[in-house]
Amino acid sequence: LGLGSIGGTAMAAPSDLTPNDYEAITHYNNFYEFGVGKEDPADYSGKFVTSPWSIEVAGLVDKPGTYALEDILKGKQIEERIYRLRCVEAWSMVIPWNGFPLSALLNQVGVQSGAKYVAFETALKPDEMPGVSRRVLDWPYREGLRLDEAMHPLTLMATGIYGKDLLNQNGAPIRVVVPWKYGFKSAKSIVRITLQEDQPFTSWKDANYREYGFYSNVNPQVSHPRWSQATERVIGSGLIPKRRETEMFNGYGDEVASLYTGMDLKKNY
Amino acid sequence: MPASLSGPVNRVLRPVPAWPLYILAVLPPAWLVWGLFQGRLGVDPVKTMEHQMGLWALWLIIAGLAVTPIRRILGVSFLKYRRAIGLVAFFYILLHLLIWLVLDVQIPAQILADLTKRPYIILGMAAFVLLIPLAVTSNAVSIRRLGRNWRRLHLLVYPAAVLGGLHYVILVKGIQMTPILYLLAILGLLAFRLPWTGRRPR
């Protein structure tokens, strides 16, 4: 099963993408629990233990509880999804993820009718994460999506890259990938998923709400207060990276624009 | 440092001229260019070069600001190297700026937008502009011609250093420790110059 399995409109998603090489994808990361440098996650995540792993599913669900990773993966079809990744720092990559739609997991646990949002929490293990001794963010790292965003067929729970298990620096053993939003929305190394009525606490919005909104959809028309989002540096495009114009919703507008009909995306950035 | 120690150090320094610094100064940029073609600068080589040149410039600005406190507290004088330190710092800032313009942003319209709208760019550019007259007058003829005004003019390095430190603090995401330490180092070295903190030279 590839992108074709999610219906006609999904085929309009960028499909002629050439993925970055594995070295770049695994050595150019933002994962502040391991340090703020781009190579810190690769250098300092070696002690991070990701097996055994479980995710606690809580809140407005029919079957709350702590699910072992094996039980989550059981019966899930792992697909390859080649997605653009657009960082809020105005660089981009293309990543060949392996994973399954988040909706499959949400359907498995049974979302109750009052739930409007999904909150994600990243592991917090100070002994294995040298970056958390610095309070750059209010740990643990938390992110969230509106329920319809979370249920969207493009929203992935990723477990691998290039057919290999995720490395620690990429959010092992399981993470979210939301390709039409800035990279920081895609929380890594997930330990808790909560279905709730209120908009979740999100770490970057908490750190600086003027710069990082809850939605954080890729949007070339809305500047980050400190830099333009109109273009992006394409990592791996030669000795001197080229710039390309950033696309609305990172090129996934045909699939996701309807989620935001009637919303002022300048206000809801 | 007691005179028994600072004396010998100064004696060792006395015959060491400043001009080799200008030759050594070529090494970091040359190393970066070499690394670029060797593929040693990581996944994002342009950012690596840009950041490295910015950091080298800050290190040298801090070193230049430290000359006076070291002379007053330890009695060891690096005074004759200070002009070279300053000029090399300016050279690195110029390279930092050129890398940003030509290799990073690339698009003229966006450079202009960044220059007018982005606080960290404005601060960095202001620091660069303040340093231009200092670089231009860092020669024996200008020192003679300007007389006392030369010293006054070169006090511009103080605001330029603070702007450079702030530029680093506000360009990073979130509150990060490293750039704050750089800024504190700069502010500390400037605080030393306040009339009630600095000790008189011997």
Describe the structure.
With 269 residues, chain A is an alpha+beta fold. Chain A has a single domain (3-260), classed as Sulfite Oxidase, Chain A, domain 2 (Alpha-Beta Complex), CATH 3.90.420. Helices cover 14% and strands 24% of the residues of chain A. Chain A has helices spanning 22-26, 40-44, 69-73, 102-109, 147-151, 203-207, 253-256; strands at 54-59, 65-68, 79-86, 91-101, 117-122, 142-146, 156-161, 164-165, 175-177, 190-196, 231-234, 243-245. In chain A, strands 3, 4, 7, 8, 9, 11 and 12 form a seven-stranded mixed beta sheet that branches. In chain A, strands 2-1-10-5-6 form a five-stranded mixed beta sheet. Chain B has one domain (3-191). In chain B, helix 3 packs antiparallel against helix 4 (45-74), helix 4 (45-74) crosses helix 10 (157-171) and helix 7 (119-136) runs antiparallel to helix 10. The radius of gyration of chain B is 18 Å and the shape is globular. The mean pLDDT of chain B is 92. Classes of the chains: A alpha+beta (269), B mainly alpha (202). The interface between A and B is medium-sized, with 30 and 28 residues.
What are its keywords?
heterodimer; A: 269 residues; alpha+beta; Sulfite Oxidase, Chain A, domain 2; seven-stranded mixed beta sheet; five-stranded mixed beta sheet; 7 helices; globular; B: mainly alpha; 11 helices; transmembrane (chain B); electron transfer activity (chain B)
Q: Characterize the overall form of chain A.
A: globular
The name CATH uses for the topology of chain A is Sulfite Oxidase, Chain A, domain 2
* Number of domains as seen in the coordinates of chain B: 1
How many individual helices of chain A? 7
Shape, per Cα inertia axes of chain B: globular
Which stretches of chain B of 5+ consecutive residues score pLDDT under 50? none
Q: How are helices and strands ordered from N to C of chain A?
A: HHEEHEEHEEHEEEEHEEH
Give the total of beta strands of chain A. 12
| Structural class label of chain B | mainly alpha
**Can you identify the CATH class of chain A?**
Alpha Beta
The fraction of residues in strands of chain B falls at under 5%
Largest sheet of chain A: 7 strands, mixed
Based on CA atoms alone, the radius of gyration of chain B comes out at: 18 Å
Query: How many individual β-strands of chain B?
Result: 0
Q: Assign the CATH architecture of chain A.
A: Alpha-Beta Complex
Distance between the termini of chain A: 33 Å
